[in-house]
Amino acid sequence: MEEGMYRAVSGGRIALQRRQYSASCREFSVRCPWLQLRSLSAATCSVWLAAYGLFVLSQNSMVLSAAIFITLIGLIVYLHFVKIDQESLLVIGSLGIQMTSSYASGKENTTFIEMSQVKDVVINEAIYMRTFKTKGQVHP
């Protein structure tokens, strides 16, 4: 198993692991760092400052409650649908390609493409920005 540390286009650190199980079976995994405290704090502070400004203007305490609720719902949606912790690409030469995305909430999304359908594989920036060309089709 080989592991290397790289920088993403955004400047964040990512880890690339390469494993070779046999001559025709390889796995590539990209792991991103956990949620960055700086971005979480900035988003939370901006929502709460905007809510406090509206509270001062309207003198309605429901604005502050709504800001807390919106922040919590936004964080849950972000962790479940957006924040990807790890992506892996398993290439089995005679069988096909399996792509797996693991989200911060624990949710996993797996896609399998049969090798007979694969014409060429292009990895752009990271596995997340993938394009698979099959016979007559492009799979995002």
Total E-strand runs:
9
Radius of gyration: 21 Å
Note the main sheet. 6 strands, antiparallel
Beta-strand content estimate: 35-45%
**Strand sequence of the main sheet, in spatial order?**
1-2-3-4-5-6
Average pLDDT rating: 81
How much helical structure, as a percent, in the residues?
25-40%
Number of domains: 2
Family: Belongs to the PIGH family.
Domain Phosphatidylinositol N-acetylglucosaminyltransferase subunit H conserved: 88-129
Keywords: Membrane, Transmembrane, Transmembrane helix
Protein name: Phosphatidylinositol N-acetylglucosaminyltransferase subunit H conserved domain-containing protein
Descriptive notes:
It comes from Gopherus agassizii. One of its GO terms (biological process) is GPI anchor biosynthetic process. The chain crosses the membrane at residues 39-57, 63-82. Residues 88-129 form the Phosphatidylinositol N-acetylglucosaminyltransferase subunit H conserved domain. Keywords: Membrane, Transmembrane, Transmembrane helix. This protein is an alpha+beta fold and 140 residues long. It folds into two domains: 2-35 and 84-139, no CATH class; 37-81. Helix content is 31%, strand content 44%. A six-stranded antiparallel β-sheet has the order 1-2-3-4-5-6. A three-stranded antiparallel β-sheet has the order 7-8-9, with no helix packed on it. A hairpin with a 3-residue loop joins β4 (84-92) and β5 (96-103). The radius of gyration is 21 Å and the shape is elongated. Residues 126-134 have low confidence and may be disordered.
